[in-house]
Each structure stands twice: as C-alpha cells, then as structure tokens.
UniProtKB/TrEMBL annotation:
Name the record gives this protein: Glycolate oxidase iron-sulfur subunit
Coiled-coil ranges from the UniProt annotation: none
Reaction catalyzed: (R)-lactate + A = pyruvate + AH2; glycolate + A = glyoxylate + AH2
Entry note: cofactor: Binds 2 [4Fe-4S] clusters.
InterPro entries the UniProt entry points to: 4Fe4S_Fe-S-bd, 4Fe4S_Fe_S_CS, Cys_rich_dom, Glc_ox_4Fe-4S, Helical_ferredxn
Source domain of life: Bacteria
Cofactor(s) the protein needs: [4Fe-4S] cluster
Annotated PANTHER family: GLYCOLATE OXIDASE IRON-SULFUR SUBUNIT (PTHR32479)
UniProt organism field: Peribacillus asahii
Entry EC number(s): 1.1.99.14
Length: 434
C-alpha cells in the first residue's frame, strides 16, 4: 500500500470505521437524518463515506464536505450504538483531514485565522467584545439599529440572534471579577472555575452567579487567570492542532491550583474539557496530565449536588418547567440526573419532561448560524415537543441551547408567556442571589 493511502487511513481513522456494522440503531436518534432524510446525512452513512476514503473508493474528498459539515456533532448516535463506535473521534479526525487539504478563499482564511487564533483564545479580546456590546446597548445604537431594521440585512441571520442576546455586563462589573471567593460555612471542596471565552464575554452574569452559588454551598472558588478557550469550536471546525494547544495551555494554568475539581457551567465547554485525555492521548508528555485534568472536570450541577444541593430556596408558584438537555452534557459527560434533581428541589414548580428530551435543539456551537435552515427544522421539532408540555420556563445548561430556545420562543410567538433561562440563573433567583 502506498504511503498516501496509509496516511489517509490514519488521518481519517479508517480502522475505527470497521466497528460500525451498519445496523441502523443510530438512525432514529440522529437529528439530521430525521430532518433531511438522506443516508449520507446519518451517522452510519457518514462513517461509510469515511470508510470508502480509506479503501480508495472515494478519491474526491469534497464529496464528504456537506455530509460532515451538516453533522451537529451531538453524538446521540454513540449512546444508541450497540458496538461502541467512536463516532465523535471519526468525525473530529475526518473534519481535520478535510480542512488540512482544503484551499479556503482569502477572506474565509483570514476570518478563520483571526477568530481561532486571535479572538477566542484571547482574554483581552473577549473582554473587549463584551465591553463593545455593552457600549452598543448603552449608547442607543442598538435601539437605532433595531428600529431601522438594518439588522435584518446582516448575513447568517445575525440580526435574529442579536435580538435575543442577554444584556451585557458593564466594564465596571467586569473590573470587579473574582479571583477567589471563600466558602460560606464549612468548606467542602476547593474548586477552580472555568470561565470559558464566549461565556465570559456574553454571559458574564451566569459566570458570576455560578461562582457565588458554589461558594454558597461550601466551595472555596478560584478563578484561574491564565485560562483560555476550551478549544471546542476549533476541534469541531477541523482545527485540531489549535485545540490541542489550547488544551495544553489550560492544563498548565489549572495545575497551579490544587483543586479538587475543575468546574464549568456550559455543556459544550464541559465536554471538551472532559475529552482532553482523548485529545492528547498520543502525546506521552501530556497524556497523564490530560487524564488528571479530565478526571477533575465536572459540570457545576454535579458539584452542587455533591455539596447537598442549594438550600433555603424560595417557593415559585404556578411555574411549569421543562428542561432542554445539552447534547454534550448528556452524550459525552453523561450528566443527566443532577440538573433535574436541582430543579425538582425548588419548591412549588411543576417539572414536566418534554418528549424526545435528549434530541438536539439544533444549536451546536455556531451550526445555527452557518446552517440556519437545517438548524431551524430541528428547532421547530423541538419547539413542538416543548409546547406540548405547556411549560412557562425552559431551562438549559449550555449557552448555545439557551440562545436557540430563545429563538424558538420568538419563532412560535411565545415571548409573552414563556422564558428561557440557564439553570444557574433559575437556581440563583430561587436562592435570593442577584
């Protein structure tokens, strides 16, 4: 076998495709197969395409681009697979192999390089983004833009997403960011809090409430200053080398704190942190360090439950609550019970599980922007199940899911009767933390 074919097999992880027996158990749980109805847009179809590359039956790699790009990466197929196919690993490798060989136009190449290398990994740039959005709100430019309807002319339906963005934190609030918060009462754990890049820039309030809730239940909380982006957006976009470099930077930063746990509040980020051990498994000098990091990585709901939950919660009357499950929390981190347990601990609420609760909402990072029409088909199906619950509150545990559900509320004209909140916002309000 020539070297080129062997290289393709290795890069596309051809050997792992042989685990797939093409049984079809993945089809009912795959959102894109259900919404698009194409075999090439199913997990087993995508695996078969990769397999054909490894066997030399596909030589034009561009054939794989649409099927792989339209995959949400929700990884529900892994939970349904009876033979343990590592679909996420195959998808990640195939995307990286395609990106390595693709010639992007200059504007696209420049945007990718800027966003992946200069924006997401930079704390200063992400802070500047948060400051800029606050200024956009406070100066009245936002009202002017909305009134003029210029936002509707922005590409990728950005105007639709701008309309449901949370209020930005002020520069004054950001200037008083925590580096350490002492546990209230007896200390149960010492934790290091992962702020994330987009979470810290656009969802600063949720991070702030997360830190205060952790302290409330008995955690000494450290916010590591040298942390950076988790690398999820990079890995999902085929920039796997950049994702590895960010993982190493985070491992070094968090090793400075002798924490019991590394805590996050975003399902997508949490899944990436959890998978650092997989990401760096082939690098001997990083393998053990990455395994230690991943073992310590926990969703905030897990820590709140470990500490006994949040006490002295005020009663919420006449609120029917449903929970939009984060795919990456469910399918990668396997965190399913804790958020529901926390919700059911709030006095007075009626918790109603929606049908097909584990099905993706169609957000998937920036999928809903770059594949808007496909994303909205999936969202509309999700909203159909949400409406059946007659819920007045939709709880999420991931920023992408949160924005997607807000878009769904607007699309269904439910903004006067239904609201979407992050679990931490809802818990903090019940605990009287503002």
């Amino acid at each position: 076998m020539n070297e080129t074919m062997e290289q393709l097999r290795q890069e596309f992880q051809y050997d792992k495709t042989n685990q797939c027996v093409q049984c079809g158990y993945c089809l009912p749980v795959c959102p894109t197969y259900r919404s698009m109805g194409k075999e090439t847009h199913s997990p087993r179809g995508r695996i078969n395409l990769v397999k054909m590359v490894g066997e030399g039956r596909i030589t034009d790699l561009s054939v794989l681009e649409e099927p792989l790009n339209l995959c949400l990466g929700c990884r529900a197929c892994e939970t349904a697979c009876p033979t343990g196919v590592e679909y996420g690993s195959i998808l990640e490798s195939a995307r990286a192999a395609l990106v390595k060989r693709k010639s992007f136009s200059f504007p696209v190449r420049l945007v990718r390089k800027t966003m992946f290398k200069k924006v997401f990994p930079s704390k200063n740039v992400m802070n500047f983004t948060g400051h800029a959005f606050w200024l956009y709100e406070k100066t009245g430019v936002q009202k002017l833009m909305r009134k003029s309807k210029l936002l509707h002319k922005l590409p990728h339906h950005l105007g639709e997403f701008e309309a449901i963005m949370p209020k930005a934190a002020s520069p004054k609030q950001r200037a008083h960011s925590y580096s350490y918060v002492k546990a209230k009462g007896e200390r149960k754990y010492t934790v290091a809090f992962f702020t994330g890049c987009i979470m810290d820039a656009m969802f600063y309030k949720i991070n702030d409430l997360s830190i205060r809730l952790l302290a409330e239940v008995g955690c000494d909380v450290y916010v590591v200053g040298k942390q950076t982006c988790c690398g999820a957006l990079h890995a999902h976009s085929g920039e796997i080398d950049d994702a590895r470099e960010l993982a190493k930077r985070n491992i070094i930063a968090f090793e400075e704190i002798e924490a019991d746990y590394i805590v996050n509040n975003a399902g997508g980020c949490g899944a990436m942190l959890y998978e650092y051990a997989h990401l760096l498994k082939d690098e001997p000098e990083w393998k053990e360090r990455a395994s230690v990091f991943s073992a310590k990585s926990k969703d905030i709901s897990q820590i709140l439950i470990s500490c006994g939950g949040v006490s002295d919660l005020k009663r919420k009357e006449n609120e029917r609550v449903t929970y939009q499950r984060s795919c990456h929390m469910t399918n990668v981190q396997k965190v399913t019970a804790e958020p529901v347990q926390l919700l059911k601990g709030i006095p007075g609420i009626q918790f109603v599980e929606m049908q097909e609760a584990n099905m993706c909402c169609g957000s998937a990072g920036i999928y809903n922007m770059v594949n808007y029409d496909e994303s909205m088909k999936i969202l509309d199906e999700k909203m159909k199940h949400m409406k059946e619950t007659k819920a007045t509150v939709i709880i999420t545990t991931n920023p992408g899911c949160l924005l997607q559900m807000k878009v769904g509320i607007e699309r269904e004209n439910l903004s006067s009767s239904v609201k979407a909140l992050h679990l931490i916002e809802y818990l903090a309000d019940a605990a009287g933390i503002k």
